[in-house]
């Protein structure tokens, strides 16, 4: 009830600032929870997929069970690379896993481009919504500061109207000002911490995707392209 009375007693501008900051905070926490589970599953299933990949000797066998690791970005790379490889081999009139694809017209290069394209799409998927966390972390303190400045202006206006600088006159405006700053920091700090954490995790996944692309191309060149 005290918070409700405090909110209703604030001015219109500070109300708008507080509502905006609360909205930023609620959306940020929703994104934080979503990205946490998404990236956690991506890490977990990527490890399982790599174990399965190295234990299984044939691309067609891997392809038939790749849906078991749907949350892993590595499966998207494998699907794109293997799909491109099958198209090349069908054009050459050979079966997958039996060799014979020509590299004269850039056959392996086509597979490499497909892997890079899949990597870019997966990075975009993993980074989706994280820009909102960065925006929240960078703008919320300034929005709160605006509410603080406005509250102090209201406090000085009250002093001017009453002609008194007593605590009873100044305190409400100062409290109104400080709560805006506090809410701005409450919204910004978790968003910045989560954004940095997710960016670190995404960089690790990108390195795993690059390593997988290299290994995939090496297998293609050694066992399929005859390199």
Automatic annotation (TrEMBL):
It is a multi-pass membrane protein. It comes from the Bacteria. It is found in: Cell membrane; Membrane. Residues 107-210 form the MotA/TolQ/ExbB proton channel domain. Keywords: Cell cycle, Cell division, Cell inner membrane, Cell membrane, Membrane, Protein transport, Transmembrane, Transmembrane helix, Transport. GO terms for biological process: bacteriocin transport; cell division; protein import. One of its GO terms (cellular component) is plasma membrane. The chain crosses the membrane at residues 12-34, 132-153, 173-195. Its main location: membrane. Belongs to the exbB/tolQ family. PANTHER family: PROTEIN TOLQ (PTHR30625), TOL-PAL SYSTEM PROTEIN TOLQ (PTHR30625:SF3). This is Protein TolQ. The lineage of its organism: Bacteria, Pseudomonadati, Thermodesulfobacteriota, Desulfuromonadia, Geobacterales.
């Amino acid at each position: 009830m005290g918070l409700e009375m405090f909110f209703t007693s604030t001015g219109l501008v500070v109300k708008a600032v507080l509502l905006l900051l609360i909205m930023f905070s609620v959306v940020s926490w929703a994104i934080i929870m979503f990205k946490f589970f998404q990236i956690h599953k991506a890490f977990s299933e990527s490890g399982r997929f790599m174990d399965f990949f190295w234990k299984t000797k044939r691309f067609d066998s891997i392809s038939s069970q790749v849906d078991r690791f749907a949350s892993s970005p590595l499966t998207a790379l494998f699907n794109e690379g293997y799909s491109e490889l099958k198209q090349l081999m069908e054009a050459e009139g050979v079966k997958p896993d039996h060799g014979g694809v020509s590299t004269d017209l850039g056959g392996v290069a086509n597979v490499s481009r497909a892997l890079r394209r899949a990597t870019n799409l997966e990075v975009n998927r993993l980074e989706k919504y994280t820009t909102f966390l960065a925006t929240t972390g960078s703008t919320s303190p300034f929005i709160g500061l605006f509410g603080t400045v406005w509250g102090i202006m209201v406090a000085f206006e009250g002093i001017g109207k009453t002609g008194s600088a007593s605590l009873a006159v100044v305190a409400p405006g100062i409290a109104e000002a400080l709560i805006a700053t506090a809410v701005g920091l409450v919204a910004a700090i978790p968003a910045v911490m989560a954004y940095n954490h997710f960016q670190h995790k995404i960089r690790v996944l990108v390195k795993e995707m690059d390593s997988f692309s290299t290994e995939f191309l090496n297998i293609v060149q050694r066992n399929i392209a005859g390199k």
